[in-house]
Model the fold of this input.
Amino acid sequence: MISKILKQVPFFKGLTGKEINHILSIARERNCKPDEMIFLKAEIGNHFFIVKSGRVKIFTSIGTEKKKTFAFLKKGDFFGEMSLLGGKIRSASAQAVEPTELLVISRRNFKELILKNADFTLKLLHTLTIRLNNANKDVESMLFHNILGRLAEAIIGLSKNKHSSPVKIKIDQNELAQYMGTTRVPVCRAISTLKRSRVIDYKRGQLIVLNPARLKSIAGTSI
Ligand code: CMP
Done:
């Protein structure tokens, strides 16, 4: 049953039923409550995680004020591989945003999976390439874009893999500011500007993309 669900998510597409069953046989399950910390930045990493359901926030913080959200991960996404592959300590913190079910794989089984299952390893590398690309775009956006361009970029990033039309994103203004690596006030102002020009709508923690073409052009041109 779970293997059927997993086969529908991108990370597992292409893996055979046997390969998925093998992953399931070496994983244990962990259920997290909303806001539960899964691990903290700088802890020693001993496990690899796959999101079976729910949503996980990957973030870093400096002091109590400054937070930067790197990603929101959903069903089929994985995390926790970096400390197992090299760094030893966690490069970021992970927190459940809503009720979340995880598959947890030990360091030893993860290494064995990488060595023995080329499809799994290719999928892993593919995702890491996408994450590196996103991180490069983030740096570019922070260096070269004004706040409006950064907001547009952030919304486009959060819209990926959302197939509803219009795209709807559930996120509050604090979360959005943390995703952009900035504070709430400038983000509020930028949201108002995009609302006034009917590029987006935003109410009660839900952002709706009304004009995706204009949003793209703002992300690409506002230097
Ligand atoms: P690890 O360093 O073990 O623990 C934190 C995890 O967050 C890390 O492994 C990655 O799996 C994940 N992570 C770190 N940076 C990013 C990012 N920019 N995008 C998505 N996931 C990330």
Summary: The longest helix spans residues 118-144. The mean pLDDT is 89. Residues 2-141 form a domain with the Jelly Rolls fold (CATH 2.60.120.10).
